[in-house]
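Fold Annotation — chain and its backbone

Fields — amino acid sequence, structure tokens

___
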Amino acid sequence: MSKIIGLGGFSGSGKSSSLAYLNPASTFIISCTPKQLNIPGSRKKYTKLVKNDKGEFVGNWYVSNEFNQVMNALKIVNLKLPHVTTLVIDDANYLLSAEVIKRGLEKGYDKHTEFAQHYYDLIETSMTLRDDLTVVFISHIVNDGSDIDPRYKLFTTGKLLDRTLNIDGLFSYLLYAEKLDGDSPDTMKYVFRTRSTGPDSCRSVKGCFKDLYIEPNMRKVIETIDDFELNGEDWEETNDNNN
């Protein structure tokens, strides 16, 4: 089955920019907002998904904030685009936001259960695709606590949905994109954090990442996880021998 990786962070923390390191020839990006990709040369590297004259799907970029359409795009990549090994769902939280806005006049709690079901189905489906496919979910995070007692987690549409589904708990790998302050804007450093440092949902499988902070490079993240899952026993044996 496929592998999923979560990447959370505030706006402007370098989440989408990390995709610039991926190989466009084997990458497919689903954008849940109509904004242009934060990738140099994106207009040439990423073209919108269409059917050609032969009825074949071509292109490696799809834009939609509709759950059904995104689910259909997953199936197309899985079955019709075998050369794709990395599938990115960028700004995934806007799938929830768009549905809340479109159904804002509906009364009752049932719609929030449906929101949770749609998001769960999307993540679950992403886990059951081709074995050689890695699916990257990119989402904003929020402080679900207070300034005095912060608790950071992936963005949802509120506590009614959170009572139904713990989105963060579905990920074994959930990295946080962060900016480390320097003495000036020129010395500010963009990084990925690999594990929790307090009240947040950042996580990774123990032993996969040696460093707390790593380069914000999604290609290297995927390669590191792949290597760990293939050679993790060697890592454990090495550390056992050193104890």
In short: Residues 218-242 form the longest helix (25 residues).
